[in-house]
Specification:
Elements lengths: L6 E10 L2 E5 L5 E5 L12 E8 L5 E4 L10 E9 L3 E5 L7 E4 L12 E8 L6 E4 L18 E9 L3 E6 L3 E6 L12 E9 L5 E4 L4 H18 L3 E2 L7 H8 L3 H13 L3 E3 L4 E3 L4
Parallel strand pairs: 13-15
Antiparallel strand pairs: 1-2, 1-4, 2-3, 4-5, 6-7, 6-9, 7-8, 9-10, 11-12, 11-14, 12-13, 14-15, 16-18, 17-18
Helix pairs in contact: 1-3
């Protein structure tokens, strides 16, 4: 199936001096300009190409990878504004992405960076963007389980913490008390379901909760110790930043994990590091 606004694996039908024509099934042959190809191609080969409509509403192909395809979110820079709306750079040099005024939660100015959802407008068939995420999310009941691992996109910062898009279908919140490491709008990462309230609102955690969290981290600590000849120059006295850089976890969680390992006589805790015991 050919999907306009997404990357497709297409066969090269024929070659000309200015490019390659790709077999796009019901859409016919689509030109892939030679200047958009990094290495020469041959007739009969297949290539991954993004399909989009140009300013004349003609279907085109490019080997450029967009910041976000249709059905995805991406962080994009506003490169122009006119009477129609705002135009953002979505990674396709020949075609900026339009965010119509009707799809903007607030008016944008050139130079701003905004999180955009890319979709195909059913009425016009055009590929456009929107920042009105509420119409896309929370349309189905949230059936997640506590501690379930999910994919999220950081969407907004508030006084309470960060709002995130969960699995592309629901809103979630990471409260300030659960934030560690560097978060920014548009960042995609894994998180865990902390709670789904009766009203459907979702609370997120950046790390597993309870015993399961410490078990997983403990295994990672032991694994790294084994790879580093039994010693790591990091301890409960290390900075939160150093601990996060190494294990992507908070200092509090790290201290609990090495405490558990210490009580189990798996490690010894020294002034400037931790060491595997002889039994390990």
């Amino acid at each position: 199936m050919i999907n306009v606004g997404q990357i497709n694996h297409l066969k090269i039908d024929r070659q000309t001096d200015f490019g390659y024509f790709l077999d796009a099934a019901d859409y016919g042959s689509v030109l892939l300009p030679k200047n958009l190809v990094k290495t020469p191609l041959k007739v009969g080969e297949s290539v991954d190409a993004m399909l989009y409509f140009d300013s004349d509403n003609q279907l085109c192909a490019t080997c450029e990878e967009p910041i976000a395809q249709v059905g995805q979110w991406g962080l994009m820079k506003v490169v122009g504004v006119n009477a129609t709306g705002a135009f953002v750079d979505w990674g396709i040099k020949a075609k900026d992405l339009l965010i119509p005024f009707s799809e903007q939660r607030r008016r944008f100015a050139e130079g701003q960076t905004v999180l955009v959802y890319v979709y195909t407008d059913k009425a016009s068939g055009r590929i456009v963007g929107t920042t009105k995420f509420n119409k896309l999310l929370d349309k189905t009941p949230a059936t997640y389980e506590n501690n379930q691992k999910v994919s999220i996109v950081i969407a907004e910062k508030s006084d309470l913490g960060y709002k995130a898009i969960v699995e592309g279908t629901h809103w979630g919140m990471i409260f300030t008390s659960d934030v560690f490491g560097k978060l920014f709008i548009g960042k995609t990462l894994s998180a865990y379901i902390k709670d789904v309230r009766d009203d459907g609102k979702i609370t997120l955690s950046l790390q597993k909760m309870g015993v399961a969290k410490f078990d997983e981290l403990s295994e990672r600590i032991l694994d790294l110790l084994n790879k580093k000849d039994g010693y790591l120059p990091i301890s409960d006295k290390s900075s939160p930043e150093a601990i996060f850089d190494l294990f992507r976890t908070s200092k509090g969680t790290f201290k609990k994990s090495i405490g558990t390992l210490y009580k189990a006589r798996k490690i010894t805790i020294e002034r400037d590091g931790i060491r595997l015991t002889d039994s390990e």
